[in-house]
Amino acid sequence: MASSKDIEQFRSVLRKSKNIVAIAGAGLSAASGIPTFRDAGGLWRTHDAMSLATPEAFFENPSRVWQFYHYRREKALRATPNAGHIALAALSVPERLEAVAPTARFTLVTQNVDGLSVKAFQNVCPSREPELFEMHGRLFDTICTDCGDCKANFDSPICPALTGTEEQLGNEIEIPLEDLPRCQECTGLLRPGVVWFGEVPHQLEEIGQIVDDADLALVVGTSSTVYPAAGYAYEVADHGGTVAVFNIQHSEGDEDAHFLFLGPCHETLPLALFGINAESEASPQN
Ligand code: BJW
Ligand code: ZN
User: Fold this and answer.
1) Which residues surround ligand 2, an ion (CB under 5 A)?
2) Is the pLDDT of residue 286 over 60?
3) Per the residue annotation, which of 70, 85, 136, 266 is the catalytic one?
């Protein structure tokens, strides 16, 4: 955990910043009970990434891939934002932001597909459109592989054949194609609305501009191994900005960060951003 001197110095940089970007990953949602991918206990310690997170894998075995995403959807549906999500969402509330960074604009770029940052923003600031980019898509979007129709879908389960399969992930069953989620418009096979390896993440142009403008990057709960997101902190540092990493353990490139807050980010974020202890406070105060 960072010393109070690090926190003081960080708060001073925060206070002077003009464009803050947070780049978030799976560790942000860990305290909400959503498994990460690569670290101990991560989803891909027991499930081969390439057999699940590519378009080729989906077309090869849509039944297996749907069981994986059904498990993830059911978990995310029941999860609630933690103090880390709430601290970042609080930076979107003008009075909260002004109290810690009087001249700054804040944008959250998340690689997470669980929708928890959206929930946190809605809880903290329901009347405001958040500056939030879900660059790897959403678990609760579906895309038709025939007609391309994209819809939000929060059904639980998403189709009857997947009922109960979330209880036995790893012991998959074979579900016939016609029983997997189908398009309401054309009956084509639906796929999850997430960005797989080899696909182009969403809103890259807007995100590129935000990163170009950023003078402070908060790199939160990501292994920083998946591009293009992994490159954003380097870009901010390259044009003279400050990088602060919030991670429970060391991660790729953190030796070059200006600030390193080691610890669970539902504790380190509220403390570093607002000077509050997540253990004793339900939500950030200024
Ligand atoms: C905590 C914590 C707590 C735990 N508190 N911390 C060679 C070089 C460069 C690039 C490539 C290359 N070969 C291939 C590529 C491209 C490829 C890539 O990057 N591959 C790498 C593996 C090398 N990238 C792509 O294909 C991307 N598309 C692309 O590049 O398009 C081309 C293009 C780009 C730009 C312009 C034009 C064209 C697409 C990537 C899509 C990634 N998709 C996934 C799956 C999404 C759907 C799903 O959720 O299933 O996204 S993969 C997976 O990894 C998921 C995540 O969003 C992503 C990042 O993972 P994340 O979030 O960092 O999680 P973990 O588990 O890795 O780390 C968790 C961290 O949290 C750890 O550090 C923990 O310590 C920490 N932690 N608890 C704080 N309480
Ligand atoms: Zn369709």
Assistant:
1) 144, 146-147, 149, 183, 185-186, 188
2) no
3) 136
